[in-house]
Every structure is written in C-alpha cells, then in structure tokens.
From TrEMBL:
UniProt superkingdom: Eukaryota
Signal sequence interval, chain numbering: 1-22
Keyword entries, A-Z: Signal
InterPro entries: Phylloplanin-like
Name of the featured protein: Phylloplanin
Natural source organism: Phaseolus vulgaris (Kidney bean)
Length: 154
C-alpha cells in the first residue's frame, strides 16, 4: 500500500465510523509514536530489489545513513544478517518528508564485504512506506528501502 493509498484508506475509514473515535484514530495514524526504518543490505553492486535479493550475499557491519537533503538524520549498522533498524521520532521528521526527501546511503564501501567489489561509490535507496502497526501502546510506522542500487563515485 502506498502512502497516498493509505491516506485515502484512512479518509474513507474515518467517514465510516463515529466522529470522535474517527478523529482520534486519524490523528494516531498520522502521528505514529515511532517511525521504524528497517531493511537488509546485500553485498552486491547489482540493483537489489527486495524480492529478488535473497540469493545475494549479505553485507554485515555496514553503516547505513538516513540522508535528507545534504543532512544526515540518523544511522545504524547492519548485523550479521545484513539487517539494520533505525527508530525515528516522527515529530523530528514527518512521514511525507521522509518518503519524499530522504535516501538510505550505505557509507561502508562494498570492498569491506567482498574484496572484488569497488572501494568507492555507494549503495543508495529511496524509502517505501509499508504500513502502521500497533504494538502495545505504540503505533509504529514501518518504512523499508525500495531497493539499493550502486552509484559509482564521480
Ligand atoms: C534479517 O531479516 C530477515 C528479513 O526480515 C530475517 O528473515 C532474518 O532472520 C534476519 N536476520 C538476522 C540475523 O537478523
């Protein structure tokens, strides 16, 4: 579900249920308590769309930065499974700015996971909105990379 579809869905849902509850639900959904950006980095310079990436080797210990404009907003390091997770305060950066103005940039060169791969250039991905989950008292907006691709340095 894209972010636009999600908002449309919310509007329709809000019209279908009684007013006060609808307004509360709407606000909670638009202002999640946490935004979680999570994904997997693969050790490859080929484009890795999430679905066809499974056969690629993983990239552990890679520094993944959230870059918006020229500014680094957050960073995380991948674990042994190439996975990373960044918890963001939605008040610091709302979903729409995040999805429209930010990229995930892998700062660690590819040669760190495979010496045959380049020591310059970076893996970059835009962001995709997946949905909002409620976990206990928190509402968590989940965002994943749309797929990393290798950009050579110029
Ligand atoms: C990494 O993430 C994938 C997909 O969510 C999961 O299947 C795998 O178990 C995770 N591995 C580690 C080591 O966290």
């Amino acid at each position: 579900m894209s972010f636009k579809h999600f908002i449309t869905f919310l509007l329709i849902a809000a019209m279908a249920i009684p007013q006060t509850k609808a307004q509360l639900g709407f606000l909670t959904a638009l202002l999640p308590s946490v935004t979680n950006i999570q994904g997997t980095v693969f050790c490859t310079s080929k484009d890795n769309l999430p679905l066809k990436a499974l056969s690629n080797p993983l990239f552990p210990n890679a520094e993944v930065q959230l870059v918006c404009g020229e500014k680094e907003f957050s960073k995380a390091t991948t674990n042994d499974g190439g996975n990373f997770s960044m918890m963001m305060d939605p008040l610091l950066l709302d979903l729409s700015s995040l999805l429209n103005g930010c990229n995930l940039v892998v700062a660690t060169p590819l040669c760190n996971c495979n010496t045959n791969l380049p020591s310059s250039g970076t893996l970059i991905s835009t962001l995709n909105f997946v949905g909002i989950n409620r976990v206990a008292t928190q509402t968590i907006a989940k965002i994943i990379p749309s797929g990393f691709h290798y950009v050579p340095s110029t």
